[in-house]
Amino acid sequence: MSKYCSCCGRGPSTGNAVSHSNRHTRRRWLINLRSVMVDVGGGEARRMKICTKCLRSHKVTRAA
Predict the structure, then answer these.
(1) Domains of the chain
(2) What average pLDDT is seen over the chain?
(3) What torsion, rounded to 10 degrees, do the Cα atoms 52, 55, 56, 60 define?
(4) In the chain, which ranges are E strands?
């Protein structure tokens, strides 16, 4: 579970890398994860892996 967002659960997506000669090989697109301190309430903060989509949309509050 290292490449997954702790907030929304998004993970890597898969598909094909297509070369100029149209050969198809499998590849992965990884999400943009950041390790941030998150305020979980009750004056407690925890380090979590959060994607930048959740950080921009303010789904989590960063600990001060």
Answers:
(1) 1-64 (2.30.170.40)
(2) 95
(3) 150
(4) 13-18, 24-29, 33-41, 44-51
Token reading at 58: 């303010």
Which amino acid would we find at residue 42?
G
Tokens of 51: 């994607």
Handedness of CA 35, 37, 41, 44 (dihedral sign): positive
Q: Could you tell me the pLDDT band of residue 64, with boundaries at 50, 70 and 90?
A: confident
For residue 9, give the nearest of 62, 49, 63 by alpha carbon.
49
Query: Per-residue confidence at 1, pLDDT binned at 50, 70, 90?
Result: low
